[in-house]
Amino acid sequence: MLPIVIIKYSGHMYGDTPLKNDLSHIKDYQEFIKAINYCLSKQYASLKVGGRMAILMADVKKNHKLYSMLLDMNKLGTVEQIVIKEQHNCMSNHRKYFNENFIKISHEYCLILRKDEPLILDYMITKRGKMDLRDSLKVTWKDLVASTIESLGGRVNLEKLYKSLEGYKKTYNNPNWKAKIRQTLQIYPNIFVNIERGVWQLV
Asked: Which of 75, 54, 59, 67 is nearest to 107 (CA)?
């Protein structure tokens, strides 16, 4: 569950009771995006050819992570325009932050979608996921070895490095993977340094 804090409308901005179908009361971000996409599809279907939808939205930042509706929601039809406007009454305006590197959100977006055809639907869908680099056949040995050493604290002996990579796709498809790791460590002295026999660390 990814809890987010957004402005709640019914029961807060107006009225005393939250409305059942008010999406601003959804606490989980992924569920919120699913609900937005469902509403978007229903509203888009009701458009005539040449009709447009304008969706006003803003970003949310929580626990050092940006939650962007603009990036995450589906885009149906033709993206005609993205209008960026100043956002007023931002929640961050009323808070004090000790981290001077924090960039306050002071804008919002108006996404304009246009329906061009009655039966053919153009769409863009954002897909989120995670993958282990050790199972990627496209990652370079240099990047893989550096990332693995970093995950192990920045310094590691060869046996521990072998154990961390053994059995994954990158090593499974190379019968000489241990030799390849040793070669990688030796040919990039600006990245890896041998501090003692069989022990390497990142520069």
From this structure: 59
Domain assignments of the chain as residue spans, ordered by start: 23-124, 133-202
How confident is the model at residue 93, as a pLDDT? 56
Cβ atoms of 193 and 154 within 8 Å: the answer is: no
Mean pLDDT of 161-190: 96
Band of pLDDT at residue 148, cut at 50, 70 and 90: very high
The SS3 call for residue 102 is coil
What number of H helices and E strands is found in the chain? 6, 10
Q: What span, in angstroms and rounded, lies between the C-alpha atoms of 110 and 87? A: 11
Q: Does domain 133-202 have CATH number 1.10.10?
A: yes
Cα–chain center distance at 178: 33
H, E, C per residue of 132-188: CHHHCCCCCHHHHHHHHHHHCCCEEEHHHHHHHHCCCHHHHCCCCHHHHHHHHHHHC
Contacts of 106 (CB under 8 A, 6+ apart): 86, 87, 90
Q: What is the average per-residue pLDDT within 110-114?
A: 97
Give the pLDDT of residue 126.
Answer: 87
- Judge whether residue 2 has pLDDT over 60: no
Longest dimension (CA), the chain: 72
CB 165 within 8 A of CB 134: yes
